[in-house]
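hey can u check if this looks right to u? its 395 residues, i copy pasted from the old doc so theres a chance i mangled smth
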Amino acid sequence: MKPSQTSGFVSRKKEEKERNFSFSNSSICQQEEKMSAGAVWYRLSLLVLMPDVLLWAARISCRNEAGEAVDWFVVYKLPRYTMNASAGSGLDYMYLDPSSRNWELSRHFINTSQSALGQTLDQLYRTYKDQENSTAGAYMIYNDAIPSSKNYSTRRGHTKGILLLDRSQGFWLIHSIPRFPPFPEQGYGYPASGRRNGQTAICVTYTYDQFPEIVTQLLYYNPNVYNCSIPHPFQQALPNLQKMCLGSSLPWITVKHLTKLKSAGGENFLHFAKSHFFVDDIYVAWMAQNLETDLLAESWQLQGQDLPSNCSLPRHVYNVKEIKIPFHSYFYSNYDHSKWCVSWRYEDQWTCIGDLNRATQQTWRSGGFICTQNQNIYKAFRGLVSYYKSCNVTN
């Protein structure tokens, strides 16, 4: 099934090494006679298990910079301008996955195919090229700012992300980067407009049975889909994914929806999704109260448009004003286009990453956040907070 386009929206060697064996038939027989029954069984078991190992390696999942499958990863693209440093490339990024305890500065730029985003999205490009295959996976790409366009969609959700899945598993990548990624036929790339400010992305691998719930969350997003392909086998199991792909009428939704998700590796997540009917600050009115924790919130804060720190409800939200990175530098929030928050109390250990800024004009926009109590994710993000503004004083 080829993706179709309407008004700028798309509905969406091995080389075999030769080895020369000089065993004669008699020597082979002699070796077989000496081989114990246990050794024979061991070799046979390897042959039986090998297809499963190869299948696991081939499954769609988030990928690290070596192209290896990971359960999840987080990327924090650093802004071009930081304090106490000359202008950078705007392409450096920090990386975190289950194998690391804290941020690692990547050796690769984010615009290269060797980056974690590049390695992960390579699976998307291979799926795109294999669309005629009946076993090809399904994908959907959405962004309120589509590539090669200067316009932003205010009619749809303020959301950005990619879904890619087969009938076994897939990933959901949530990010903050406008005009990213390029259309699949163009291959991997990173927009020049994404260099100036900081950006975040979180990728989580899910088994197939999690995707009906993910699709439900996306209904609340009302995402601006610009490229997708939903082969026939997925249309029956995930009909609303097909409707979003085609731009068809969607089922009626309520104001907001909270759900539990579990990664393929067993990591627990909470996902908050609000529709445009929820006209309020998602940080204060919902997330902080539901999680029962005060939050330190980092989002793009343009002067005159940002919401102040809020202590009007039992659980408070404080705006982060300055970010310190582990490599002896700092940057201000107005150079950061990312959207995340962490528990003020270290004991609560909540981290949420998502779509919406703390801004007046975004109280009526749809979008959401994925939240986790993973200890290493919390420590990594909590350690970035240099100072924040409480309701009465800066800390």
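Residues 58-389 form one domain.
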